[in-house]
Design goal:
270 residues, 2 domains, 3-stranded mixed beta sheet, rod-shaped
Length: 270
């Protein structure tokens, strides 16, 4: 080659070389940049998105909070320099089920595990009971049979032989099942017997559907034979109180309390 052409070839090499060796961002740089932008964009920062890139093709996986967020992560990836294609595999998970709310006014029927009496019980004394009838909310099981309830004696006063009235009042305060204990509020079941055995019984703190002593679980039991004491809109509690006898609630008696406040429970397991 003549020497006069060598400077021209050298100059051409200087011009061509940069173009021949230039290239876009690496896959690693694309991945990091897209990941950072997804993590900081207001629409997508709460999403759990993984980014990978190979030969300029970006793949997006993970969970996003909404269809709008799914669209946004793809827009971010497509706008990135050096990206040739985007495969959006992100998903929008279904929303979690809502909690179960047992409304105020729900009747909670329980079976006592111990006897209570206007003569032997004392105010503040605790007692236990178990749920006798299951409760569902809009067809969804909420409170199962056998759940444990904790209650307390509000008032206990023995009847005098000659004068004075006997009184026994109780309420529930806790409900336990599936390893959790919940605070509940119920009406007070209150029964009073006058000096000569005349008995009145009322339910306080509740609505029209107040509690009632049912007289034992269906099929019998120690509470059977007490008799239902339900009248009008007031629920009643009572025992075998006649003459100078005291107000008695034998073990295994069925008592119906009314929730005076709603109870929020976890959603059912899927």
């Amino acid at each position: 080659m003549p020497n006069r052409y060598r400077p021209l070839l050298f100059l051409a090499a200087l011009v061509v070389f940069p173009f021949g060796c230039s290239h876009g961002p690496s896959d690693d740089a694309i991945t990091k940049d897209v990941q950072q932008k997804v993590a900081t964009a207001p629409e997508t920062k709460d999403s759990q998105v993984s980014v990978s890139s190979k030969d300029g093709k970006v793949t997006l996986t993970g969970n996003v909070n909404s269809p709008e967020a799914k669209k946004k992560v793809e827009e971010i990836a497509r706008a990135e320099e050096g990206v040739t294609a985007v495969e959006n595999k992100t998903v929008v998970p279904p929303p979690p089920p809502p909690p179960i709310v047992v409304p105020a006014g729900t009747v909670l029927t329980v079976k006592t595990t111990q006897a209570l009496s206007s003569k032997t019980s004392t105010a503040g004394q605790g007692f236990l009971a178990t749920v006798a009838q299951p409760i569902s909310v809009e067809g969804v099981p909420a409170i199962p049979v056998g759940a444990t309830c904790g209650g307390s004696v509000v008032t206990a006063k023995a009847q005098g032989k000659i004068k004075g009235e006997g009184q026994l009042a109780v309420r529930l305060s806790t409900l336990s099942f599936n390893g959790h204990t919940y605070q509940i509020q119920t009406n007070v079941l209150d029964s009073t017997v006058k000096g000569k055995g005349k008995r009145t019984a009322v339910a306080t703190g509740g609505g029209a559907a107040a509690g009632a002593l049912i007289g034992g679980i269906a099929g019998g039991g120690k509470g059977a034979g007490i008799g239902a004491l339900v009248g009008g809109t007031a629920g009643l509690i009572g025992g075998a109180a006649t003459g100078n006898k005291q107000i008695e609630i034998p073990a295994e008696s069925a008592l119906s309390f009314t929730l005076t406040s709603s109870l929020t429970l976890p959603p059912p397991k899927q």
